[in-house]
Write the structure tokens for this entry.
Amino acid sequence: MDVFFQQLINGLSLGGIYALIALGYTMVYGIIELINFAHGDVYTLGTFFSLAILTLLGVDSVVHGPALIGVLAVTILGAMILCGLTGVIIERLAYRRLRNAPKLAPLITAIGMSFILENLMLYWRGPSPVPFPQVIPNPQFALGAVTIQAKQIIVVLLAVVLMVVLQTFVYNTRLGKAMRATAQDKDAAQLMGIDINTTIALTFLIGSALAGAAGFVSGMYYGSTWFFNGFGAGLKAFTAAVLGGIGNLAGAMLGGFLIGLIEAMTTQFISDQWSNVVVFSVLVLVLIFRPSGLLGESLPNKV
Amino acid sequence: MRLSSFSRGVLAAVLAAAVAGCSSSGTSSGAASSGASSGTIKIGIDLPLSGADASIGIPTENGALLAIEQAGRNGFAGGAFKLEPSVLDDAVQGKHDPAAGAQNVQTFISDPAVLAMVGPFNSNVAKSEIPLTNDAGLAQISPSNTNDGLTIGDAAKKLRTAHPDVNTYFRVCTRDSKQGSALAQVAYQRLGFKKVFVIDDNETYGKGLADVFDASFRGLGGTVLGHEHITSNQVDFKSLLTKVKSLNPDAVFFGGNTSTGGGLIRRQMGDVGLAQTPFLGGDGISDAEFEKQAGDAANGSYMTVASPDVTKIPAAKSFINAYQARFKSNVGPYSASAYTAAKIEIAAIEKAIKDNGGKMPTRADVLKNIASTTNFDSPIGKVGFDANGDTTSPVLTLLHVVNGKPQVVDVIQLKS
């Protein structure tokens, strides 16, 4: 039973990272119905940006006390801002002109963007895994035979907090209302005086910033990264968004945590190599019975 | 890497077309056509030279380059022919890739000046290359492939598709059935591990080695608590390692390479509280990249190299000195093996030129000479090949990582 709870912790931590990435997929899909394949790579870029910021700050080992809060804030916010800007630039350069083109054109463009980002990172940091410094002290808490690491708590907390902030923003602010309106009907929203270009850019900014936060968290959690990291994680996160109901924020979060848990439990009770099979089998089953995902609604109430 | 491998593919196709065009018109630029008494002869080198595999691939390449340069300086074939290396990288996105290896071999085959090749480094790459060299009659010697199926049994016969009775593939290192069982003996008898957990990367080399280890360890009376296969590009091993921890093994065995998960698994063992549990592997994790990726957790790992420890062999002294003078770095685990592979090929080519009256020999002449190699003096000892293409003097070096550096524990002579 101990090992079950230990795997629960592992699954939630992994799921927290998936959830943060999935939020970006689901927001972009919600607003322009584009599967932004470059999103997984923006997430990896987040890890590399965090690494660059830490190098600039001269941090390569554990930081204690108030300095830690400063370092964390600068690094996370820096990675979020840089990734957010990257997202905006990608939207402006690659997707905006194709907004009214047939659906396949922006989709292929997104795959192309993904390759471009991967190769840029390859050029930047080389093809080998790059170590990520251990910046936070990592005390372990023992609950019986189950140990929880501080960084696991941070992953889950950050994911939940950012999701709540996002949810509040989308449902309780004017800009959020503009996003929901654009998602429902671009033309009508424009007639109501909403600048849809700005609104869509804002969506990319927020979604990519969340990927930046996930990138930092992943570097901290695994202690290393490499340029191709985003491919696998992006695929899982996209699956999480579909599982939870694409376009639905809480659904993306739920899907992320579920997939993390399914992977951990499959590894424990069946076998590691079956974890992907089980994840995608669950996805297929859910989609058969609930084609719009677990929390998805058939009517567009999406962002 | 994606882009470069793509452009390399295009280049290979264009080159192949160009060479085909040349040979039909009768003249080929630079390369000596068969029967000429001067010109350029090339030895192909196909190894993973970028990414996570580069830390072991480049020192291996250097070994082969050194042999070719020395031969050139010492008046190769009486000075009538120029000897050159033709080097290609089979890593795509930082990892050895069978399709890239096959493409590289096609490039060698379509260049008539290439009379033999050194490589590949990885067993799954060899699987895609052997059918091509078999078809073209181009001899290849691998410094490091250890998978049994490349030389032994039905698996090896199936690779020789075009000419089932001709063998073009040789290796100067031992096989995994020997490496795996030697590792099992080391683990069980020497290190005293009674219960182990086995993980492999599901590749030709990794799974092959892990299966042999698994069976041998049980055969000695040990317990294998579980045997799991990881998937390509996996980065999260915490769930798997939590499961491993709950079974409380004496050691964890990994069949695979650093680039296919070995380094990250060892690093994450520290995260789940398995830092004190020894990590055991074959020659796939004997590269410097392993210590880099695993970080502090690398300490306490054991691994073997399918070659002798040349720093301990008096006959290898001049090789080591020449290597260090030329490359300003220390020899890698497979540098001497690649040097030996290239030396054997050079000797075979020189003999073929002599037998051909000083004229450009054919690939078949070279192949015949390589196959009959016996008692060849080299930094890794006296080397010869049996009918399968395997070395007649197999040897393993056991390493233990202490303070982030692998230390030689022992050199194990195996029965051929």
Notes: Residues 2-32 of chain A form the longest helix (31 residues). The CA atoms of residues 158 and 255 of chain A lie 16 Å apart. DSSP finds eleven helices and four strands in chain A. Strands of chain A lie at 130-131, 140-143, 146-149, 224-225.
